[in-house]
Structures are given as structure tokens and as C-alpha cells.
Amino acid sequence: MEIGSTADFVTKGDVAQAVAAAMPPFSTAVPKTEMTGGAAGSVREIPPADHQHPRLTSTASGTLAVNGTASVTFTRTFSTKPAVTVMEIDSGGTSPPVDFKVQSWTQDANGNYTGCTIYGTRNRALPTIAPLSSGLLTLLSSLIGALNPILASLSGFAPYEAAGGAAFSLIALQPSPPLPAS
Predict the structure, then answer these.
(1) How far is CA 95 from the centre of its chain?
(2) Which residue in 49, 66, 150, 174 has a CA-CA distance of 20 to 30 Å to 41?
(3) Cβ-based neighbour number of residue 67 at 10 Å
(4) Does a structural domain hold residue 15?
(5) Is residue 121 part of a domain?
(6) β strands within the chain, DSSP E
(7) In angstroms, rounded to a whole number, what is the distance separating the alpha carbons of residues 33 and 52?
(8) Structure pTM?
(9) What pLDDT, in 10s, does the model give residues 105-164?
(10) Do 58 and 74 meet the contact criterion of CB atoms below 8 Å apart?
């Protein structure tokens, strides 16, 4: 070999071949779902830049109907009953906060959970009761006379009312598997 010949040098082609030979292939597998604590992988493949991890949650938002209900369709199905959390989107008003609960579940023919109906309520204000007049006799007389209307106004009083018109944000989460018995 002569000094200065290409045999003495590494070419771009040589480098490209060496890198290609050492580089793992691109993966075609679907990425695993999340896990608590995470784990280092052992498969020597490169994930493509546009890969997506399977979704563990479903999110939705909306407004409750006048009767306080809303029907929600999940963005994914759940094989077991999901954990659902619903939060009010603050309207900036002075209304009491809304309490939400799942009223019913929607399932497909295979028993997968595909949605739910939520129900929202808020506290009602107590009925207004006229103040009692001053003076001992007037007070006693008013107190005795006032007991009947007070009891009548509170009888059958429902402390909650449908929170129609309340805006909400919902998240449904695949429940974790049960912990092993210890």
C-alpha cells in the first residue's frame, strides 16, 4: 500500500456501514402501558418517533342538563369498572360546589365499560324564617306560634338540588390490579 491511498483512511461509507451494523432495528411493537416505578427495557430496538403508548385513562368535559345529569362516552373501553373522578369547572359564581357521583354505567355486548351517566347536586339554601319580635311575652308567643311554620317549612325539605348547568371535567382510570395477599 502506498501512503495516501484510500486503504489507509476510513471513508464515509465505511463509517455508515459500521454505524448501520451496530444500530438496533426500528421496533414495530406497540409500546407497553405505564407502570408504577417504571422499568428499563431489554429489547434492543429503536421506537419510531411517532409511537404512542396505550392510554390508561379517558377524559371528557361537558355541562349538566337541567335535571343534573350528563351522559359520557369514554374515549376507550375498560374491561373492569373504571375509577371515575368528576370536578366542577369553576364558573366564577357564588354557587355552592357541586357533588358528583356515577348514576349508571354503559357496557357493550362483551361487558366492557364504554361510558356512564353522572349526576351532580349542590346544597340548597335553608328556607327563610321571619325573625321573632322582641319582648318576653311577644317572644314566647312568637316562638310557640313560629314552631308550626318552621317545622312545616323544614318538613320534606331536600337539602340538595340538581346542579343543572354546571360545567364539569371527568377522568376515568383503569383500576390497578389488586395487591397480592400478604
Answers:
(1) 23
(2) 174
(3) 10
(4) no
(5) yes
(6) 57-63, 69-78, 83-88, 99-107, 113-123, 160-162, 167-173
(7) 10
(8) 0.61
(9) 999 999 999 999 999 998 876 666 555 445 555 666 666 665 666 666 666 667 788 899
(10) yes
Instruction: Kindly state the cell numbers that stand for 179.
Output: 395487591
What is the CATH classification number for the domain harbouring 79?
2.60.40
Query: How far is residue 182 from each of residues 45, 178, 179, measured CA to CA in Å?
Result: 37, 12, 9
- The string of DSSP letters for 104-125 reads EEEE-TTS-EEEEEEEEEEEPP
C-alpha cell recorded at residue 177: 390490579
Look-up: residue for cell 451496530? 22
Q: What is the pLDDT of residues 40-78, one digit of tens each?
A: 777 778 877 777 777 788 999 999 999 999 999 999 999
**Beta carbons of 168 and 61 less than 8 angstroms apart:** yes
Q: By CB neighbour count within 10 A (0-12 exposed, 13-18 middle, 19+ buried), where does 61 fall?
A: middle
